[in-house]
Amino acid sequence: MKGPLFYSKILLFGEYGIIKDSKGLSIPYNFYNGALKVSVDLSAEAKKSNESLQRFSIYLAELEASQPELVTFDLEKLNKDVAGGMYFDSSIPQGYGVGSSGALVAAIYDKYATNKITVLENLTRDKLLKLKKIFGEMESFFHGKSSGLDPLNSYLSLPILINSKDNIEPTGIPSQTIDGKGAVFLLDSGTTGETAPMVQIFMENMKQEGFRNMLKDQFIKQTDACVDDFLKGDVKSLFGNLKNLSNTVLNNFKPMIPAQFHKLWKQGIDTNDYYLKLCGSGGGGYILGFTQDIEKARKALAGHKLEVVYNF
After folding, report:
1. How far apart are CA 22 and CA 11, in angstroms?
2. Are 38 and 3 within 8 A, CB to CB?
3. Per-residue pLDDT tens for 151-192?
4. DSSP-derived 3-state class of residue 168
5. Contact 27, 186 (CB under 8 A)
């Protein structure tokens, strides 16, 4: 058995903000993917994945029992496959903010959900929201509270525009200019990040009025403006808003930025060679970068691994 491939994702804009109803824009990233496989002779890594799936199947049985109106699974088949050595064979790095658990959730839903909403049917807003809710409940097993966006992105393999919590839609993004100098890139921090502790810090900060005001008056406004600019292809305005957003993050989300990158982050803002922002919850993993001149950015970030994900 080898299941279909499910891709990683990149949340270009909206990390933390979407918890408080900012806009967001998430795109599939085909460079990494994963699929369900079965083997009798499991490597150490596959065995770890198989054990995680055993625990996940117990969780899904509890989820089905508590919310049968939301989602049901062919649990018998799932348990049989897990017992037979099923694992998730994935190239998606874990703890890097590119949706490793999201791809797994999408794969399990695709294969074992009964009465599933398929990608081929007419995806009304209600169906999308229901899918997002199902995926949110499923993915909560991996890191506490989940919005369900990562699995949704992986399942649909389409860019998703988040207008607000209750308003999401598949969207088109401007097509890439393959020889364009401008680029969105991933910068490898060299360490993994854990989502739950980062979200915990954010929730603690939310208790302070100053932080809440900053979120509403700066962070969310800047995020929304970036989403609008990116979708319109207004590069000039986008980079103005990105600079502000990068600055806001540096000043208010320091714990989420690995310490060795504080200086590089500030250097980008000061020189305008590139602007950095969080990719996912931060704390490690990838950092997302935007530049109008990728060669300049490469020089400025020499010694670091850059992976271009989009050219314009």
Report:
1. 13
2. no
3. 999 999 999 999 988 899 999 998 888 788 999 999 999 888
4. strand
5. no
Measuring CA to CA, how many Å separate 228 from each of 37, 224, 264? 40, 6, 27
Phi, psi at 72, each rounded to 5°: -130, 155
With bands split at pLDDT 50, 70 and 90, how would you rate the model's confidence at 1? low
Whole-angstrom distance, CA of residue 162 vs CA of residue 147: 11
Longest dimension (CA), the chain: 58
Average pLDDT for 75-95: 95
Query: What's the whole-model pTM score?
Result: 0.89
- Nearest Cα neighbor of 116 from 46, 107, 91, 280 is 107
Residue with tokens 């739950």: 196
Query: Under a CB-based contact definition with an 8 Å cutoff, are residues 99 and 135 in contact?
Result: no
Rounded CA gap, 138 and 39, in Å?
Answer: 24
Structure tokens at 267: 């250097």
Beta-carbon contacts of residue 263 (< 8 Å; ≥ 6 apart): none
Closest CA to 283 of 166, 150, 154, 191: 191
Q: Would you mind telling me the total number of residues written for the chain in this entry?
A: 312
